[in-house]
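Lab notebook page, bench 4
Experiment: in silico fold of construct C2
Operator: M.H.
Input chain length: 191 residues
Purpose: comparison with the prior construct
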Amino acid sequence: MVLSLTVVCLVCSTILGFVYKSTAEPIRKAEIAKTNASIGEVVPAFDNTPSEEDTVVTVGGNSYSVFIAKNGGDIVGYAIKSHSTGFGGVINLMVGVTPDRMIYNTSVISMSETPGLGARIVPYGKFNAQFKGWDPDKKVLKVKKDGGDVDAITAATITSRAFTAAINNALAVFDRIKNVKTDMSNGQVQQ
């Protein structure tokens, strides 16, 4: 019996190892393609490959990936992979920030919010459109219910707060890169 179980375990582990080895590279390439597509959505046109030049920045005990987009050698934007916890779990965003600290665009990488409510952050409607060209130095990046300037999704305030928190996290990462002191209590930069 011991011999039979040993043989079965060895055969199964060999098969699992083979399957893992044969699928690891396609999975890695698919993740890179997804990252590149997200970067392309959130920063101005670039001619380098930002996904090959990522940097990890730690802010508030959390790590964030930063992808620098360049065109002709000049930095045109920073694509920052950010996250926050919403109603249904973690919301992962790619946030594009221009060198002058304006939000260029946002893209949802993954989320598990309630269909028909919080999941409306994905179709890129009115909610997402309000962040294009957002100047965090002139507008408060909080939902209106909390004293900010963001129009929340109806019946999905928790998701809206998480989305704006993820953008604030990305701005804190940008500020860390640029060595600007940020007051995260109100989403504003202190000069």
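Observations: The beta strands are 55-59, 62-71, 74-85, 90-97, 103-110, 182-183, 188-189. The first helix runs from residue 2 to 42.
Next step: discuss at group meeting.
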